[in-house]
Structure formats: structure tokens, C-alpha cells
Write a structure and sequence with these properties.
The protein is mainly α and about 160 residues long. The chain has two domains: about 80 residues, no CATH class; about 60 residues, Arc Repressor Mutant, subunit A (Orthogonal Bundle). The protein contains five helices and two strands, in the order ββααααα. It has a two-stranded antiparallel sheet. The chain starts with about 20 loop residues before the first strand and ends with a helix. It is an enzyme of class 6 (ligase).
């Protein structure tokens, strides 16, 4: 969108008065980033997606045969048991409390079979939706870094 708003001079250079900077920041647990994107000069968000770490996945052999973590039990129920038993005759909906409760109960059963503790309703929700808990201090630091970039741009320092 911001690139489409750029105007170009006769020599093909970007008209500096049409550059609208974008301040981008985000957090994931204890990790975070803040950056300024200048359309036409710096990489856009889409161009840098490969720089972010991949989502955590668990090998199917681990979750099916040798679970060691509560997350392994939850993934097993989510991937294997849901399709096998099809409890509500609909696809899994991580926002449906009945679906989450069913997954929680089955995950708890599986964890007990392998003497694994730590299954909680909240953990089940997090695994289903790939939610990583926010850390307030990380959010505050990244928000401050983004605000600093805005002040730098506003005062042209």
C-alpha cells in the first residue's frame, strides 16, 4: 500500500515527500523486534518473512510412540485422535469450548498413560492455536523501541 503511494521524479528517483515510513514491531515470548520500513528503500514485511524462525513442530513418531512433553500428548490428540474419533462430526475449532474440553480430557488421559504431568486447559488452548504467552516486559521494551523510532522520524534526527 505504501509503495503504491510513492511518486517518482523525472529521473526515476523517489520523491522524498511521498515516503510514508512504517514502524513495525512484534513480540513472541521473550523475543521481539522493532524496525522502520521505508517504502522503496528498505525491505517490506513480506520480503523478510523468511528471516523469522519457523513454527515449532513435533515429529509424528515422537508424538505417536514416545511422547515426553505435555505438548506431545496434546498434538497427538489434535492430529490423530480428533480425525480418528471425529467427536462432533466437524473440523476442529480451537475457539469452541466443547472442542477444547474434549481435547483437554483426551490429552490428560494420554499424558497419564505415559506419566507426563503438566496438561492444563490453558496449555491445550495454546497448543491448538499456536499461542505463545506474551511477556509484559518484552512488550514494553519493543513498544518503547517503536516509540523511539517514531520520535526519531518526527524530529528528523
Amino acid at each position: 500500500m505504501l509503495i503504491s503511494m510513492l511518486d517518482y521524479n523525472d529521473d526515476g528517483s523517489v520523491d522524498p515527500s511521498t515516503i510514508i515510513p512504517l514502524i513495525d514491531g512484534g513480540t513472541e515470548g521473550f523475543k521481539g523486534n522493532a524496525r522502520v520500513i521505508l517504502p522503496g528503500f528498505t525491505s517490506c514485511i513480506e520480503c523478510t518473512l523468511d528471516l523469522f524462525p519457523p513454527q515449532v513442530t513435533y515429529p509424528l513418531c515422537t508424538i505417536a510412540n514416545t511422547p515426553r512433553l505435555p505438548e506431545h500428548c496434546i498434538e497427538y490428540v489434535k492430529i490423530i485422535q480428533w480425525d480418528k474419533e471425529n467427536p462432533f462430526n466437524v473440523p476442529l475449532d480451537g475457539d469452541d469450548p466443547q472442542h477444547v474440553a474434549w481435547l483437554y480430557e483426551r490429552s490428560l488421559e494420554r499424558a497419564n498413560q505415559f506419566n507426563i504431568s503438566g496438561i492444563t486447559y490453558r496449555l491445550v488452548q495454546g497448543v491448538i492455536k499456536n499461542i505463545i504467552p506474551a511477556v509484559a516486559s518484552t512488550n514494553a521494551i519493543i513498544a518503547a523501541a517503536c516509540a523511539t523510532e517514531v520520535f526519531k522520524l518526527a524530529t528528523a534526527l
